[in-house]
Structure formats: C-alpha cells, structure tokens
Amino acid sequence: MVTVYLTGRPGVAALRRGPRPRAAGRYGQQADAVARGQGDLRAGRAELVGAQSTGHVRLRSGDPKDKPAITANYLKEHEDMQAMIGAVERGREIFASAPLRSLVGREIHPGGDTSSRQALDKIIRSEVEHTYHPACTARIGTESSGVVDPQLRVHGVQVADASVFPSIPHGNTHGPDGDDRRKAAIMIAASGCAYGTLICSRGRGSGG
C-alpha cells in the first residue's frame, strides 16, 4: 500500500465534513504528520493485488511456543515495484484530471518534485505498508508443490483459511477465505464423521 497526499484547494469545502478520522498504526501516523499545518487533506491510496513476489514462513525450532520465522519479500520482483510506481503515476493523472483538479491544491507527499521512477522507487521501498491479508503459506497442491491436499488435509487435519490458497487472489481475501470454510464443512458433513478437527486462522470466520 502506498499513499499520495495533496492539499485541498483554498475555498473548496472538504469532501468529508466534521473531524478528520484518525487511522490507526503507521498509516495514521503518516497521515497526521503530513497533514500537520496543511489544513484540509486529500489522499489517494494504491494497493498491489496479485503480487509476484513470494516469501516464506518457517519453523524456528521444534518448540510449538517459538514464533515462526516470517520473510515477506515485499517488492522482491521487479514487476511488483513497477506496478506500484505506475500506481503513483496514475494517481497523479487522476488528481490532475477534471473534476478532481478543481478540488486539490499542491501535492505534499511524495511531492511534485519527486517525478523520476528511481526517486519513487526509493520512497515506496521506505514507506510501503502491507494490508494484513497474508495468504498462500500452506497452499493446496501435490506433495511437491503444496502442504494441503484438495480435501484441505495436512496429515489428517483439515485447514480452512487463506493459507491454503494456491495463489494470491486479485482482491480482498475475506470472501474466498469464507468459501474455504464452507467447503471444509460440506466435506466433513459428507464424510459421515460425527467429529472432525478443523483449523481456522480465527475463531469467527474473519478473513486472515
């Protein structure tokens, strides 16, 4: 996720009336810092879906209490970075077009003087943020390509969450995550088993 911030044009009413909502985490801190002393603020946010870069999740030891070693490898593939740079450039084109042009003032971050793709690469790498929807860490496939079979089983235990996705979907993971759980429930019911063991990322069916 990368964000472009612009000031509102003087004399133009804010798009959202009332107090400016505060976002949590680093994104909210960045917005607060950028907006300080700037008055009304406009923002355009771009998120990369269908990323080509892949990371891994590995065990640190045989102790189940040890936290796993997670390597995300964000923007490792050249085409992912080019897509993010292109998103900033396209965002600028959108803000410069009618009718948005009449609502915005100057670009304050990353700044209108930051125009080269090399400069945008540097800023994106230092400020990009994930959106808390990891997937594909226990993908469905054969023994050589995945750890979960088509029945969502790992050594007899069924897994039903976003970790079994063979590839990252082009959108929010919440919907297909729920489909996994429905599929698992249908298969458990069809098997005639009175009891089953089902592992989910969260207890209330929230996308993970």
Q: By CATH's scheme, which homologous superfamily of the largest domain applies?
A: Glucose Oxidase, domain 3
Question: How are strands sequenced across the largest beta sheet?
Answer: 2-1-5
Radius of gyration: 22 Å
Number of helices in the DSSP assignment = 4
Q: How many separate domains make up the residues?
A: 2
Shape: elongated
CATH topology-level name of the largest domain: Glucose Oxidase, domain 3
From N to C, what is the helix and strand string? EHEEEHEHEEHE
Number of strands: 8
CATH architecture assignment of the largest domain: 2-Layer Sandwich
List the uncertain runs: 11-28, 202-208
- Give the integer mean of the pLDDT values: 76
Structural class, from helix and strand content? Answer: alpha+beta
CATH class of the largest domain: Alpha Beta
Q: Beta-strand percentage? A: 15-25%
Q: Helicity, in percent? A: 25-40%
- Distance between termini? 17 Å
Q: What composes the largest sheet?
A: 3 strands, antiparallel
General description of the model:
The strands form three sheets. The protein has a three-stranded antiparallel sheet with strand order 2-1-5, with helices on both faces. A three-stranded mixed sheet has the order 6-7-8, with no helix packed on it. Strands 3-4 form a two-stranded antiparallel ribbon. It has 208 residues and is α+β, with helices and mostly antiparallel strands. Helix 2 crosses helix 3. It has two domains: 126 residues, Glucose Oxidase, domain 3 (2-Layer Sandwich), CATH 3.30.560; 75 residues, no CATH class.
